[in-house]
Amino acid sequence: MSAMIREFSPRLSTKPDIWRQIGIAERGPKLYQALHQGFAYQVFDKLAALSTLDKKQLAAVCQLAPATLARRAKSGRFTQDESDRLYRFATVFAAASSLFGGDSAAIRSWLTQPVYGLGDQAPIEMLATSAESQAVLDLIGRLEHGVFS
Start and end of every Antitoxin Xre-like helix-turn-helix domain (predicted)? Predict the structure, then answer.
């Protein structure tokens, strides 16, 4: 009996990851610099399109008043705090996208519907603080690994 050994060659994904699609680094010095400088307004547009949320809904989730959003569109850049809130949403969206294999309808439904594991709150309603966002990310991690308690 002979064994055949083949060289491992990882498959490259043809679909760009969410971070590249929205135009920011997922982590590291480039992300930190972008957060300190404030994200470009296009990040908001790309996040809205990618998440299939309308801009008003995304603005509400990220605590951006309509007048503030209009000023940021004009100036072309968000503040550091606003960028952090956008990043918080992007992180949860990326994790949910991974959980649901990129299925837009499933991602949107899960983000916007009450979830038992979050005290019957919708994940999208739990992004106001980093602690709440971390609870959503923790739940996604547990679901990915089949830990339901």
Answer: 31-90
Which distant-in-sequence residues (6+ apart) come within 8 Å of 25 by Cβ? Answer: 19, 31, 34
Find the length of the chain: 149
Give the global pTM: 0.85
Provide CB contacts within 8 A for 141, sequence distance 6+.
95
- How far apart (Å, rounded) are the C-alpha atoms in residues 58 and 39? 15
What is the helix (H) or strand (E) element at residue 144, kind and residue range? helix 130-144
Check: CB of residue 137 under 8 Å from CB of residue 92.
yes
Q: Could you write out the DSSP letters of every residue in 53-115?
A: --HHHHHHHTT--HHHHHHHHHHSB--HHHHHHHHHHHHHHHHHHHHTTT-HHHHHHHHHS-B
